[in-house]
């Protein structure tokens, strides 16, 4: 069966397992007494690696093990699919449209014991008790409570020296002659090129297994190595393409939630400068919708000049609940940081947008990876200082009750 036809029927396959087994639903397929459902699930970022690994591995396994069902699931709610612009771009090139895809919210709330889960591109999951196989390239997190819930029989293939999980899938795809699919090869190839930053020697995000697989896929696709740079540029541009997104979607596109015991602070990374974002019509409505329950919102902007490839970055801090002291505390922590020095400066033209604080970040090497821990420490410091007040309140509230008992 071809990849397209396989995908067109996965929804029906899933439905057959989830609805109470109706004889009519099963009549269409060859009956097998122990026909089992295997979900193939990527990680919650649903980047190209996770999405492609899940889709292609599910297809390969489904073709090789016809007595069972394999269904790929993208680990995001369906509403977030438009945000994954590079995924949409590559899937579009392969004729895969959103209606045939399955998402996290297509799954039932309760996972019964008889459903097996195959994790790709991550290995810590709340579905651990159901997991039978793992293909991953993240550093092993065997201290995570959910990791310890994996069954002893779970087959683990975790290799952090590999740049892309798609390499691990490609190894399985190419290991046997069947099935063969141009689309599968194309998706795996593109993913490896993107994840390894096109085998950049400075980024060093690849190993020999990635190199071997990209070459073998190129042989199958009849592509030359010289075509990689163009493909890489195309994928990077697709990932940064926010032209079809609403402003609230731009905020959600690449968001990380920073959680302490007391609060949740979203850090939104955007492929546009914050300064330009806040000037857009509807920006205030979008920010209010995005950060409705947060004391603080951190915006990280980045813009790559298409003309010369020069990178610019800036930062915005906004508090919807008017916590100006908290904003000031985080601002100071960012400005004072020396590891790394973010080189924050005021913008040439100031903005009063929602009473927030907006700064240029002249150290363009520093990314969210560097900024997140600085923000977190500032939040914890601030909470520690304000903690005493809370305890006093609780003390006075509870004292009369204690006296009565
Ligand atoms: Mn990955």
TrEMBL record:
Pfam families: DHHA2
Gene Ontology CC: one annotated term: mitochondrial matrix
Name used for this protein in its record: DHHA2 domain-containing protein
SMART domains: DHHA2
Family: Belongs to the PPase class C family. Prune subfamily.
UniProt organism field: Drosophila ananassae
Keyword Repressor: no
GO MF annotation: an example: exopolyphosphatase activity
GO annotation, biological process: compound eye pigmentation; negative regulation of cAMP/PKA signal transduction; positive regulation of mitochondrial DNA replication; pteridine metabolic process
Keywords, comma-separated and alphabetical: Hydrolase
Record's signal peptide: none
PANTHER family named among the record's database cross-references: BNIP - RELATED (PTHR12112), EG:152A3.5 PROTEIN (FBGN0003116_PN PROTEIN) (PTHR12112:SF39)
Residue ranges occupied by any DHHA2 domain in the UniProt entry: 232-379
Keyword Hydrolase assigned: yes
């Amino acid at each position: 069966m071809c990849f397209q036809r396989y995908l067109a029927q996965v929804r029906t396959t899933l439905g057959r397992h989830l609805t109470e087994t109706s004889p009519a639903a099963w009549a269409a397929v060859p009956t097998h007494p122990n026909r089992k459902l295997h979900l193939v699930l990527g990680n919650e970022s649903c980047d190209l690696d996770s999405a492609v690994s899940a889709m292609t591995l599910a297809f390969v396994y489904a073709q090789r093990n016809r007595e069972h069902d394999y269904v790929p699931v993208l680990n995001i709610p369906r509403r977030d699919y438009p945000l994954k612009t590079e995924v949409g771009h590559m899937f579009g090139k392969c004729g895969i449209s959103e209606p045939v895809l399955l998402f996290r919210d297509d799954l039932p709330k309760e996972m019964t014991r008889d459903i097996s889960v195959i994790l790709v591109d991550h290995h810590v999951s709340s579905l651990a008790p159901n997991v039978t196989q793992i293909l991953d390239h993240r550093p092993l997190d065997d201290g995570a409570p959910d990791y310890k819930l994996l069954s002893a029989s779970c087959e683990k293939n975790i290799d952090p020296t590999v740049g892309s999980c798609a390499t691990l899938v490609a190894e399985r795809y190419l290991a046997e002659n069947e099935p063969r699919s141009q689309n599968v090869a194309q998706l795996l190839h593109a993913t490896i090129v993107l994840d390894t930053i096109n085998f950049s020697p400075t980024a060093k995000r690849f190993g020999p297994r990635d190199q071997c697989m990209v070459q073998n896929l190129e042989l199958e696709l009849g592509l030359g190595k010289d075509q990689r740079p163009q493909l890489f540029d195309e994928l990077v541009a697709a990932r940064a393409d926010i032209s079809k997104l609403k402003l609230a979607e731009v905020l959600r596109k690449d968001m990380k939630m920073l959680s302490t015991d007391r609060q949740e602070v979203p850090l939104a990374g955007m492929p546009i400068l914050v300064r330009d974002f806040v000037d857009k019509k509807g920006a205030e409505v979008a920010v209010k919708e995005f950060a409705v329950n947060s004391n603080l919102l951190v915006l990280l902007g980045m813009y790559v000049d298409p003309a010369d490839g020069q990178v610019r970055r800036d930062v915005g801090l906004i508090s919807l609940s008017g916590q100006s002291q908290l904003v000031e505390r985080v601002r100071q922590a960012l400005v004072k940081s020396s590891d790394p020095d973010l080189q924050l400066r005021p913008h040439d033209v100031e903005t009063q947008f929602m009473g927030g604080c907006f700064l240029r970040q002249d150290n363009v090497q520093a990314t969210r990876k560097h900024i997140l821990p600085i923000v977190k420490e500032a939040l914890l410091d601030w909470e520690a200082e304000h903690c005493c007040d809370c305890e006093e309140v609780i003390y006075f509230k509870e004292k009369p009750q204690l006296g009565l008992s």
